[in-house]
Amino acid sequence: MKERTREFSFDATLLIDYVFERGVTRDLWQDAIARIQASNDPEATFAEEFDQFVDSYREQWRNVPDEKRTEMLAVLEQAARRRADIAEVDSE
Asked: Which one of 26, 61, 67, 90 counts the least CB within 10 Å of its CB?
């Protein structure tokens, strides 16, 4: 039996552009970022807001290999942090 492998790649720039600028979540993200920036505890608010999106993205990307899905979420997290003007967290 021949094993078939699928390769998956993504372009971080296109992903960020779609999620934050063109996709159906654009307005949701804009509202979330406004709440984060207005918060007395931006880090906690960021965690709450980002977590709301994670489950949805995991479901949408269920056919994406786990490692790539994790990379995609990390890209979105860092992009969201930049947009909200809060410090990026080291992933190590």
From this structure: 90
